[in-house]
Amino acid sequence: MAASLLLVNNGIFPITRDAEGKLLTDVPATGLQHPGTIQGEGKLVGTASLFIRLSGCNLRCMWNIPGGGVSACDTPDSSFDVSKNQLWKVDEIIETVRHNLGDMCHVVITGGEPTIQHRSLKELCRRLKEEFDVLITIETNGTLFDEELARHIDLFSISPKLSDSLVTEEKLKQLPQQLAEKVAAAPSQKTPCPDVIQQYIDVCLNSNGEKDFQLKFVMSGSENTESIHEEVLNHISGWKPSDILAMPLGGNHQTLGKTSLRVLETAIQHGWRYCPRIHIDLFGDKPGV
Ligand SMILES: Nc1nc2[nH]cc(C(=O)O)c2c(=O)[nH]1
Ligand code: SF4
Ligand SMILES: [Mg+2]
């Protein structure tokens, strides 16, 4: 059977043509007239990119916001609310990329947790590298590793989720009831997994500089540094402070406004890289940008 992948609704973005090369009637969510956006986070920030967002995640993240309130996973359509997902043949994804890639040299595979679909995903990544001159970034929570998949990836963007992201009764009470029910109903794997993260780092260290990784921590401020060390950094080796990305919690301007400067201060104190989310600055909290 031909390999296929579950993507979110409009899971290849931003695009202006379909798999047959026909112009789509809707302009992309970016509001721009052409396909593509920029990588909004991490070491390749600003790089012109096409995104492929896979559906499904093995975690259910939810954080407390400083000063009150909670912030749940910013891509619910790929984690606990997957009602609109779509099955794509790898061939269709490849053709859609072909008609939208233009001069872009970077494809970001994200989710959800894309490695859940590792069997078909390695086929997609193999084909992307074979047919196009692209670098591939994978955005992963670092709970699963597949050696063959890793061979096709250039940048591992690992965002380990710590105990402060676990769902609790207290947090659930602060969500609208419908959303709370969906979050509560979904199972979540224990996290983080330092042994898995180490496998990613080792692949990079053994790649003659061809592959790189980043460890991107969702943070509210200095209150997170103890668990970053105790739950992850103390258990892994082969990283430098500049591989550690301190990313402010928040999927919209309002929440980012409460966390950004606190996280910036902490990043500077530790020699870590501050990780802005520039797609949210540029386009807001819409999906598909
Ligand atoms: N422009 C843009 N950059 C991103 N970097 C990581 C993203 C993600 O959702 O994984 C993302 C995204 O959704 N859009
Ligand atoms: S790991 Fe990422 S995609 Fe999965 S629930 Fe957490 S924030 Fe959402
Ligand atoms: Mg994200």
TrEMBL record:
Cross-referenced Gene3D superfamilies: Aldolase class I
Protein name (Swiss-Prot/TrEMBL): 7-carboxy-7-deazaguanine synthase
One Gene Ontology MF term: 4 iron, 4 sulfur cluster binding
Protein residues bound to substrate: 38-40, 53, 110
Organism of origin: Prolixibacter denitrificans
Binding note for cofactor: Binds 1 [4Fe-4S] cluster. The cluster is coordinated with 3 cysteines and an exchangeable S-adenosyl-L-methionine. Binds 1 S-adenosyl-L-methionine per subunit.
Ligand binding (S-adenosyl-L-methionine): 112, 159-161
Keyword flag Lyase: yes
Family note: Belongs to the radical SAM superfamily. 7-carboxy-7-deazaguanine synthase family.
Gene name for this UniProt entry: queE
Entry binding sites for [4Fe-4S] cluster: 57, 61, 73
Domain Radical SAM core: 44-285
Catalyzed reactions per annotation: 6-carboxy-5,6,7,8-tetrahydropterin + H(+) = 7-carboxy-7-carbaguanine + NH4(+)
InterPro entries given in the database record: 7-CO-7-deazaguanine_synth-like, Aldolase_TIM, rSAM, rSAM_sf
Pathway of action: Purine metabolism; 7-cyano-7-deazaguanine biosynthesis
